[in-house]
Write a structure and sequence with these properties.
Layout: E1 3-8, H1 12-23, E2 28-31, H2 40-43, H3 58-82, E3 93-98, H4 101-111, E4 133-137, H5 145-158, E5 162-164, E6 169-175, E7 178-184, E8 187-196, E9 216-226, E10 235-238, E11 241-245, E12 250-254, H6 268-281, E13 292-300, E14 307-310, E15 317-321, H7 327-343, H8 356-368
Parallel strand pairs: 1-2, 1-8, 2-5, 3-10, 8-15
Antiparallel strand pairs: 3-4, 6-7, 7-8, 9-12, 9-13, 10-11, 11-12, 14-15
Helix pairs in contact: 1-5, 1-7, 3-5, 3-7
The structure holds flavin-adenine dinucleotide.
Length: about 375
């Protein structure tokens, strides 16, 4: 069977893109090498906010803010279409020891991000003052990753999309600047349009299809604790460490940024370090052991800016990748931008920063040092 769109990679990026196309009446199949949503999109924390946005280029913030503005409605529509509960929760975030606090506040004011005095219940946390400011960001939300991915998959299938698991893309057949077929371990599929959404593996490309410039795996280790519901009811962030409460009492603690290739192993020293740091923020975590410890591979790209563009070598191949630390946050706006590029309609925001050419330039800067710095 021929599909209008063949998407390679069934994480949050491929699924969001597929759903957007299905809503437009297109036929979609998603080829997934393993199980749907079992890689980075499963492993992540689900905070819907860059950490911290004023420290990133505006192009990352713009895409994130667009996503954040639509997220509640996007999730509601997904749940209404396929059932399930992604556990979207506007739980707020307490950012502690924020350096250059006035610059951060000014950024929030300029971008419509609310900053309010922290609610008194949060003063039960240990004192955190050593120079930086405390910022309470009441509108920061989260989703529960495995549940978001399950809901997305259900919505895709409810709209007639096909998810093909255990189906690794292994190569392409090409003719006159177009990919005519995708070769996979489950057979050969005639190609209408192909979307590369292979996350941390996007830099590898496929035989005959060049990989995305400078996307590489960056490992992140996470700990999961089980507390009584209500012990923590907001995200807490301090100096690169975050605690994410779930409504049922689970608390996620993350994470690390490790350049370790495609190795998803975890280690005891990191477990101990994360545990001690988390207990410093929330003493209740010091008296319990983690119930789970895992690692995932983020699709790392310079400045966290994804690549959302047509492939330079083929008219009918598009890229949606390199979302690094914020692929869950960026999913709706990235899919929206990609579909606008595919359809040749007005893009919802300037697409240039997410283009292949801009990615090449960032890759060069990352390798040689940014001359402008
Ligand atoms: C520890 C950690 C914490 C994180 N926390 C957050 C957070 O709080 N908020 C946030 O917004 N983001 C967070 N992220 C980042 C976010 O999870 C990722 O950016 C996002 O999941 C990327 O989604 P993806 O679909 O592009 O990649 P993936 O979910 O990795 O999906 C890519 C898929 O492509 C498949 N694939 C690869 N090659 C092939 C092939 N040849 N054929 C077929 N299939 C193939 C893979 O098997 C995989 O399933 C975190 C990530 C980690 C690891």
């Amino acid at each position: 069977m021929q599909y209008d769109f063949l998407i390679i990679g069934c994480g949050v990026t491929g699924l969001s893109c597929g759903l957007n196309l299905l809503r437009r009446g297109r036929s979609v199949a998603i080829a997934e090498r393993g199980l749907a949503g079992a890689e980075s999109s499963w492993a992540g924390g689900g905070i819907l906010f860059p950490l911290l946005p004023w420290d990133y280029p505006e192009s990352l913030a713009r895409l994130a803010l667009r996503s954040m503005a639509t997220y509640a409605g996007w999730v509601a529509e997904i749940e209404a279409t396929g059932g399930g509960d992604a556990e979207y929760w506007r739980c707020g975030m307490l950012a502690l020891n924020v350096g250059e606090g006035e610059r951060a506040r000014a950024w929030c004011a300029a971008h419509g991000v609310a900053v309010e005095p922290a609610p008194s219940r949060l003063f039960t946390l240990p004192p955190q003052g050593d120079g930086g400011q405390t910022l309470w960001l009441p509108d920061v939300a989260q989703v529960r990753n495995p549940r978001l991915v399950a809901a997305l998959r259900a919505a895709v299938e409810a709209r007639g999309g096909r998810v093909i698991e255990q189906c690794a893309a292994t190569g392409v057949r090409t003719q006159s600047g177009r990919v005519t077929a995708l070769e996979t371990t489950a057979g050969t599929f005639a190609a209408g349009t192909v979307v590369l959404a292979t996350g941390a593996w996007s830099g590898l490309g496929l035989p005959g299809l060049a990989g995305v410039p400078n996307v590489r795996p960056i490992r992140g280790q996470m700990l999961l604790f089980r507390l009584e519901p209500g012990v923590l009811d907001t995200i807490v962030y301090r100096d690169g460490l975050y605690l994410i409460p779930r409504r049922d009492g689970h608390v996620l603690v993350g994470s690390t940024l490790e350049d370790a290739g495609f190795d998803k192993s975890t280690d005891a020293a990191t477990r101990a370090r994360l545990h001690a740091a988390a207990a410093g923020l929330l003493p209740a975590l010091g008296t319990v052991q983690p119930v789970q410890h895992w690692a995932g591979l983020r699709p790392g790209a310079p400045d966290n800016i994804p690549i959302i563009d047509r492939h330079p070598d083929f008219d009918n191949v598009f890229i949606n990748s390199g979302h690094f630390r914020y692929g869950v946050t960026l999913a709706p706006a990235s899919a929206e931008l990609l579909v606008a590029l595919m359809e040749g309609t007005t893009t919802p925001l300037d697409a240039a920063p997410y283009g292949w050419q801009a990615a090449l330039e960032r890759a060069w800067d990352a390798e040689h040092g940014d001359a402008s710095g």
